[in-house]
Amino acid sequence: MATIKYLLQSDKENSNIYLRYSVGRASVWKRKTGFVINSKNWSVDKAQPIQKTDELKALKFKLDKLAIFINEAYNKAISTGDEIDGDWLQYQIDLFNNKIVVVDLDVLTNAIDYYIAKGDKLTSGSIKNLENFKIFFINYEKDCLRGKSILIRNINLNFIDTFKSHFLQKGYSPNYIGTYLSLLISVVNKTSLSGIPTHPEFSQIKAIKKTKEPDEIIILTEEEQLLIKNTELTREALINARKWLLLGCLIGQRAGDLLNLTENNIKEYKGVKVIELKQKKTGKLMSIGLFPDAVEIIESGFPYKINLEHFNKYCKEICKEAKINTLVKGKMRINNTRILTPGVYEKWQVISSHVCRRSFATNFYSKIPTPFLMSATGHSTEEMFLRYIGKASNENAFQMIDYFNKINN
Question: pTM of the prediction?
Fold first, then answer.
C-alpha cells in the first residue's frame, strides 16, 4: 500500500516541504511539494505544520488535499497500468499546483489529427500514412499500455527503446519501425510549436537511418499478359479486374492513379487516344499515349471502379487461374499478418497492384527511349528508374549502341 509522509530537510526560515512517497520498500521517491515553512513551525513528530495560526492551518489543509489528490491518482494509475516512478510523482504535484494543464493536444493521437489538419501541402498519400500511423499507435496503446493514452510530454528515450524492442520482437523490419519513428518525431515537433511541452530527452531521439533493401523485381512479361488475356474467366469481378491489370501494364501508373481513372480521362488528339491525369503522389499532369492493346481494353467497355484491397486480391486470383506459377523470390503475408515474409513462392502469390507500373517500365525498356518511359512512370532521375527495373547504369550504353545501329541501317 502506498504511504505519504511530509518532511523538512533544513532548519531554515524558508524550508521546502518535501513529500516522501512509498510503494513498498523498493519504491520510494521524494519530491518538493512547492510549499515552504519556517522550520520552527514544523512538528517533526506529527510530520505537519504546528496548528497555531490560521495560516499554518491553511497550509496543513493544502498538504492534506495534496495527499488525497496523489492517492486518487495512484489508484487510477494502477487501474490503467501507468508506470509509477519519481517523474509520475512530480507530475502529480505539478498538476495539483496548476503548473501543468493537460490539454487534448498533449495526447499523441489528438496531436496526429492536429498535424493532419494543420499540415501544409500534405498529399493524400501522406494523409493516409498519418491515419495508418494513428491506428498503429492506438493498437500499441491497447496491446502494451492497457489502453492508456500516450502523452507527448512522456515520450522519452525509454519510451522509444521499449517501442522499438516491442515491434522488432513482433517481426517488423527496422525500416518499417523507422518510418513511424520519423513520423512520430515530426508530429511531436509540430505540436511543440503550439506550446505543448516535450520531455527533456526528446531532443536526443534520433530517426532510424534506413537501409536500402533490394526489391525483388516482380513483373508480368508480355507472354504472361497474353496468358492472362486469353484465360477464361466466369466471375464478373475477375473479368473487370483483369481489364485494370492489363491496362495498368500498358500505361505504367501507380495503383492509386490507375484505379481512379474514368472515361473522362480519355482524350483524342489528331486521331491518337491518350489518357490524361494528375498523379496523386507527385502532382504532375500526365498525358500517356495508348497502345492498340490498351485502346482495345477501353473500347470493350471501360472497367468499373474497385478499391485497392479488392484489386490486389483479384490480381492474385486472375494470375492463379492463368497459371502464372513460376517460382520467384518475393515477400507475402502469412496467415493474414501485417508482416511481409520473404521466401520462394509461385509468382501469382506475390502479385499485387504494383506489378502494373513495374511491368510497363521493364517490358518497354530498350523499346521506348528511357526519357519517355520516365515521363510516364513519374521517375525524376534515370538512376532511380534503372534501379526500379533492376538495371545497371551501364545498360544505357548498350541501348545507345542499339539505336546507333538502327540509324545506320
Answer: 0.52
